[in-house]
Fold Malonyl-CoA:ACP transacylase (MAT) domain-containing protein.
Amino acid sequence: MPLVVSARSEAALDGQVERITRASGAAKDIAYSLLSARTLFDHRAVVLDGEVVARGSVKRRPVAFLFSGQGAQRVGMGRELYEAFPVFAEALDNVLQYLDPALKEVMWGEDQEALNQTGMAQPALFAVEVALYRLVESFGVRPDHVAGHSIGEVAAAHVAGTLSLEDACQLITARAALMQMLPAGGAMVSVIASEEEVTPYLTGNVSIAAVNGPRTVVLAGEEDEVLKIAKQWKYKQLKVSHAFHSPLMEPMLEDFREAIAEITFSE
């Protein structure tokens, strides 16, 4: 059973290691106490069978959290965490009180297609992502930076303090419902090409929906035009009901502005 020992300095760590190697008791109890009942300092060692097998000092680096967009949803997501961690359960229930009362049943039902509907998928992802953040936060992990893909941007804005929970849920509900009401159709395609390579081929019906990396972009818009452009490179068509982040979303914009007009965005 490996034992994680820590101290404020190298000299203090030597003393801690010596004391641990002489400690009596069940190894699993000692290991648990070292990690749960004592402060973890920067100078650390791992003791196994009385020998130091690893040793060093911790240097903290910036931590960033990235929240996922639509497409990451699956039925049953969050259910086991809900049952295992009261912090997660409380956080999820706190979000769900501001969303569709049927959402939890859809999330934890058996109909994946019902959850894939934009009106359910976006609020469900937001709720689970916020609850996950609160769970990790309860472990003492706090990010220096947060960001998100699409609907994940709203979760990032909420945990960063830009949006209150109630306002964020209002935005999510309006966004998801208005997108759901748009006529189905269009396409989103992941293309192995740079932003600079695809930009000259964009049209009034096709836009860059996302830049995922130096050589990976997502095109969205009218299906025939999107595919005509994408076929110049290696590509993969995404399984989506609408062409999000494209000109095909424009009919909902005025209603969306009106729906979120009273929302407060904090600095």
About this structure: The first helix runs from residue 10 to 22. The chain has three domains: 2-57, 64-181, 186-250. Residues 2-57 form one domain. The mean pLDDT is 93.
